[in-house]
Prior knowledge:
eight-stranded mixed β-sheet; alpha/beta; 8 strands
Amino acid sequence: MLDIIKSENQVFCKTKLMTDTPLSYCPGCGHGTAHNITMEVIEEMGIVEDTIGVAPVGCSVLAYDFMDIDMTQAAHGRAPAVATAIARTWPEKYVFTYQGDGDLAAIGTAETIHACNRGENIVIIFVNNGIYGMTGGQMAPTTLEGMHSSTSPYGRDIETMGSPLKITELVANLPGVYYVARHAVHTHKHARKAKKAIRKAFENTRLNKGVSFVEIVSNCNSGWKMNPIESNEWMVENMFAYFPLGDIKVNGKLK
């Protein structure tokens, strides 16, 4: 009887594709939510046996501890190249990369651009927190103007350091990219929208449509030297202004 009552009153059940390993991310980090909604999509689509994830170096490398699916590691920035090889070897599989901004938009810029330009049938999940989170809080390509980091202690100076890179808008212009969206996961509403975008991306893989690219703008309270609440507020006020949320390219057409 107790089990029946619990079942009737249950409003949430953790996906079986997230392990029971306690998350080792900094408290307040968006990676855990991004992991969870990605695994929920794979479980709900019933494609766990046919899905292969690729994560490189950085905070994303911890995904292996938490995602209970087939995963492989790539060298820093090389996840799109590894995903290309897997997808071409097993074209019936659902292949995705899970990458941070320092990895995808700096060390792996060439791999990202060329995989997108070729239209490889993969999903790219890109977590943008505007900083190198794991390796010391250095300035990343997506670090905002005036934003402090360990390598820009006085703030990013556009004249000497260039402008923050909108890599998502850049790849959206490539013909091999079918779907591009930018979302966040700091509230339930935003996480639901991000999950919907990730689901669409995997559905596009099923239809062999080429690259689907989903950016998730997140915080890095440790790297930003803020508490979790302050970092989310700063993200909304500053990151969203430069990296606006929403669909950028749908069904091969720019919005």
